[in-house]
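FORM 7B: Structural annotation worksheet

SECTION A. Query
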Amino acid sequence: MGVRWIPFTLGAMVVAAVLAVDPAGLSPFGPARWWLVSTLGLVGSGLGLRTARTNLDRRSTWCWGALLALFGVSALVNGDVAVSVLGHPVRHLGLVAWVLFALLFAAGQQLTADVDRRIVLRSTVIAALGLGAWTVWELLVGPPVALATDSDRLVGPFGSAAILGAACCLLLPVCAALAVDATERRGWRIASSVGAATTTLALLGSGTRAAWIGIGAAAVVLVAVRRPSRRVLLAGAGLAVVALIVSAPRLDDVVQRSNGAASRLDEWTVAARIIGDHPVLGVGLEGYRIAAIGAVDADYERSYGRDRVLPDRAHSGPLDVAATGGLLAGGLYLLLVGGSVLVALRAIRRGTPATIGVAVAVIAYAVQQLLLFPLAELDPVWWLFAGMLIASTPSDAEHEPRRWTRAAGLAALALAPVALVAGVLDVAADRLSERSLAAHDLDDAIASAERAVDLRPDDLRYRSVAIELHRERGSLADIDLALEHADAALRWSPDDPIALDAFATLLLDRSAITGTAADVDAALDAWRSLVERDPVRTRWLVQLGRAASLADRIDEAHAALTAAAELRPDDASIATLLAELEARR
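SECTION B. Predicted structure
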């Protein structure tokens, strides 16, 4: 028997989704992972559909087709077309990502042979072992990759406690199932036991309530449907107790939150406003960050602020989809997820231990996503697992695939080289950006940042790095070069809040240098425009106050800074600016 390229490629994607990290990059947990996941996912799904032997499940295929069509129309009508199609460089959840999810769901249905599914599940064990080793090291020694965080929660190879918890929802059930699977080889059963133990530790150490609820709900479903023996229940309980004992010294730290459960309700309130304003086609994929500008109210700004993190997702999978694609898209998404959960329930009743593990993982991840959001890093694995469940359960589907199924495989294979090249350039640009921020010589730093922009001119992050370095050097020529970067970012994404902020900030910098009436008026007009869009964003009010003060419009400056002080009464810098204005009066 030759190499089974399809399951090996898909299995490699599962490993990459969990363990792909580039410590030398500006974003160690981003570009390298998406490069490998997108490329391997397209190759694996392309091969699987190109050689398809089984027709796809009809209902879910129609749902996927309708959902992708709605996303495509929404991307075209909402003005941020490029980002909606290709994805934001941090989230990657554009139309391309959703097409990848659909392709992997379809490819999973072609894994009809037990040996093929077994290869993917063993890859899941390998991913769990890597994740477990990472988190144990993080617990005992410290994070292998340095992070700027004051939280004691484990973040694993994702740099995020929330994503770590979501990954455990996928990995833990599969490892636990293979550990008790009598048909599995002894070595893999031992490896699965270790993976189950360490991912349990990671799950607890992440302090992610959404993942805890997901695993808990899936465990309740498993017990209710399968009614396992007392021995199995005791083994599971013992595993949980051991993990609790090991992580007990830090449990108090990981459950602490700067914001309680009310913060999630506040996020859902913002999402509800956005959905209410755009019920038919939503705001476009990745458009949430733009629509949130007008949906955040003063209470939200007072409670959480937007100096470090901007709202860019609804913190609930269905709400996120409904906000970006409209209510119909949200309904189709619920049908797809609900259908996958129903298939998982059937698999739990009649499946083998390995199939039951996949089914529990699908349910756990679906439940936790009600409290989180779609993840470009892990949703490919989830949808692959959901497709595998369809392949492992009896079906009345036609055995001869339709012609367009194989055409979809060809399209995926044609896109794979594009994803490969784009990913390589992204990783190279990410490393150049990190090098520029670490450079001691500012000229060398700017040169590296400019090379990063040349490699990926579409990525707003690299332009942001170049802008900040030019601002640091601070000459008028540098401000003008930075303005060119900001203008290019706005041509790519006209309403991006970070690019809008950067452009207005640079106009204010230029006016401070030249002092000309034209530059001062340009900066003042830019900040007035932004405050009109979002009158409760503290930073924009402060910047409007600075611009108005520079233009000697003292009353306007005072009004803007007073509004900012009401939103942020404990900010001493705002009080200082107000005092300076009073002195000028």
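SECTION C. Observations
The chain has a mean pLDDT of 90. Residues 8-415 form one domain.

SECTION D. Sign-off
Analyst initials: ____
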